[in-house]
Design a protein that fits this description.
This protein is mainly α. It has one domain (10-81). The protein has helices at 10-23, 27-39, 41-53, 66-73, 78-81. The N and C termini lie far apart (52 Å).
Length: 85
């Protein structure tokens, strides 16, 4: 994390200060959240999509015995697997 300094108008600082106190957070955290929302809006969507994806393939038959699955994939020689053998 990098440190930076911002100059805020008195009325903006007071509004942020009041909001931070009421939410139990800091002005710094609120500024970070606002910057993320403004400049990385898709990051949260990607994070939610990844969280939704976790575990969707857990019931696949090949995962009942992952060692056998990997060995079956690695059967033969590399050239055979690449279709050159």
């Amino acid at each position: 994390m990098k440190r930076t300094q911002l100059y805020l108008d008195d009325d903006l600082w007071q509004a942020l200060h009041n909001r931070a106190r009421s939410e139990g957070t800091t002005i710094s955290e609120m500024v970070r959240q606002a910057a993320r929302k403004r400049y990385f809006p898709k990051l949260e969507q990607r994070r939610e999509a990844m969280q939704a994806f976790i575990g969707t393939r857990k019931d696949r038959p090949e995962w009942r015995n992952p060692v056998a699955y990997v060995r079956r994939l690695r059967r033969g020689t590399r050239t055979e697997r690449l279709g050159k053998g």
